[in-house]
Amino acid sequence: MARFPEDAKQAASQMWRRLQDTRAGMLWITGSDQHPQPMTHFADEESEAIWFITAADTDLVAALGPGSEASFVYQSEKGDYHASIRGPLVIYHSDEKLDELWSTPVAAWFEQGRDDPRVTLLRMTPREAAVWASDSNPVRVGLKMMNAAMRDGVAEPDIGVHRIIDFAQAA
Fold first, then answer.
1. CA distance 49 to 132
2. Which of 86, 105, 128, 165 is least surrounded, with the fewest CB atoms within 10 Å of its CB?
3. CA angle in degrees (0–180, nearest 5) for 64-56-22
4. Torsion angle in degrees (nearest 10) through CA of 112, 113, 114, 120
5. Mean of per-residue pLDDT scores for the chain
6. Higher pLDDT, 88 or 76
7. Using CA atoms, how far apart are residues 122 and 93, in angstroms rounded to an integer?
């Protein structure tokens, strides 16, 4: 069961921790004709960034332009945590950061490994996120839903919380 954060600051801290639990989500450039695509992410709370490694010849990189905004959607494996994150996405040139994030699974996508000229590091700086933390026990969720459906005056089942995080204010 996901903890239910009390405020935006707790929700932001929880989001960074939960992004470590699962390594994939869906990323896209806001306002482009591009479909969301699955991407491995590397969350770095210290630098307040979500990193991605992709190839220079992808639709994602082609859709990037000055001031590009991206959206990244994540769901935990248990289904008890969801996040929809928005912020600027840029190509980031740093051999040091790329070396820090590089791994065998990443290398599998590049014929020449770390030295492949197509390797492209992207940095997303979250500006805003909507997060949902809920009960992961399906029996408990079902009982709460049935209880809410059978009771007058109960608008919805109490199975979790929803928070909007403005990262400028949550810091």
1. 20
2. 105
3. 80
4. 80
5. 86
6. 88
7. 8
